[in-house]
Amino acid sequence: MLVDHFPLVGLRLRTPRLELRLPSPEELAALAEVAAEGVHDPGTMPFLVPWTDRPAAEVARSVIQRHWTKLGEWTPQNWCLDLAVFHEGAAVGMQDVRARDLAVTRRVGTGSWLGRRHQGKGIGTEMRTAVLELAFAGLGADEAESSAFAHNEASHGVSRKLGYELNGTDRHAVRGALTVDHRMLLTRAAWERHRTVPVTIEGLDPCRALFGLDLA
Questions:
Q1: What is the pLDDT at residue 102?
Q2: Nearest to residue 135, comparing CAs of 11, 47, 3, 25?
Q3: Does the domain made of 2-207 have the CATH classification 2.30.42.60?
Q4: Do residues 208 and 215 make contact, with C-beta atoms less than 8 angstroms apart?
């Protein structure tokens, strides 16, 4: 079975309302359609790489290709886990968690997108909480980093709620204009103080080697 060779397909994160896991091909297609319908106000760009500026068919295809690429490039030293987010059985967005040399650095990064019609319901907070539980409780991380442009108040709201603090800024050219990116950092101590959403993790033990962790 596939799970015997690539145990990440058996990994499950569950919160009171959500399930996060690798999608089936049909579910990946559904996610692509959610992205094609829109994930942000077209008047602003929340992403450093403006992948949502392309025609809808190209946006959908990029979701599929990115997902396959990240799995195909996976190594225990450098990985990015793109998890589909399901709410009431429907695919609503994508949440990633990633790291380089996790066993040494003990730091992860996260990123996400959520279909516009699913925003404003607290789903963004819950899905990031799920991967933070995986990182801190499951993988032994000490820090988690995130970033969002100055105008992305929704992302900053999630970060503040979960205990992140400002960790510097970067300046980028996006759509030909200056955009200030705020780097945010969450420590283990702050995560422990701000844990409010229960998360269950299933199928992690067989995956530890893929995350670059010592099985001893």
A1: 97
A2: 11
A3: no
A4: yes
